[in-house]
Each structure stands twice: as structure tokens, then as C-alpha cells.
Write a structure and sequence with these properties.
By secondary structure, this protein is an all-alpha fold. The chain has helices at about 5-30, 35-65. The chain contains 2 helices and no strands. It starts with a helix and ends with a helix.
């Protein structure tokens, strides 16, 4: 497996986790009362994932264009 394939698999995994966090945050927000601290932690994790996704996409993009 080459580096590009490894990065693509990691990217797919991160995107999946990001989507899952969206679902979890939505479900928690629907419950009353909901744990604000837990939602903040999940949103922080989501931002970290978004940053990782962006970094991997920028590494893959030059290879795709070339």
C-alpha cells in the first residue's frame, strides 16, 4: 500500500468519525437537560478532526492534480 492509499484510508476514517460526532451532538442536544460540557468536548473533537481532514486533503491534492 502506498502513502496516498494510506492517507486516503485515514481521510475516510476521519470523515466518518466527524459525521458520527454530528449525529451524537444532535442527539444529545435533543435531550433535556443536556450536558453542555459534553457537547463542548465533542465539538472540540470535531474541530480537531476537521483540521486533520484539511491537512490530509492538502497532502493528497497535489498528487491528484499532478
Amino acid at each position: 500500500m502506498n502513502e496516498q492509499e494510506i492517507l486516503q484510508q485515514k481521510l475516510d476514517s476521519l470523515r466518518s468519525e466527524h459525521r458520527d460526532l454530528d449525529d451524537v451532538i444532535a442527539r444529545i442536544g435533543e435531550q433535556a437537560p443536556f450536558d453542555q460540557l459534553q457537547i463542548q468536548r465533542l465539538k472540540k473533537r470535531k474541530l480537531l478532526l476537521k483540521d486533520q481532514i484539511a491537512r490530509i486533503e492538502s497532502r493528497l491534492l497535489p498528487d491528484i492534480i499532478a
